[in-house]
Amino acid sequence: MDDRTARGFRAFILHMERSTRQKSSSPCRRSTFPLMFFLFLSCFFLSKDVSSDILAFIIFASVGLHIISIA
Prior knowledge:
The structure is a single chain. By secondary structure, this protein is mostly helical. It has one domain. 80% of the residues lie in helices and 0% in strands. The protein contains four helices and no strands. The chain has helices at 3-20, 27-30, 32-47, 52-70. The radius of gyration is 13 Å and the shape is flat. The chain starts with a helix and ends with a helix.
């Protein structure tokens, strides 16, 4: 991972952590972090030519975590 990608990844994680700490107590807003994180990972791995099985697992895991965190 080059330096620019690593900085973008860290900035994305910090942004998502800040957005989950907002004063809003809405459970829907707090539960979007796992979904956005894993979708970001899938986009990152898509740009690195990773196999489609791994991408499918990441996407299904992110949707599953999102559903579990809402429930």
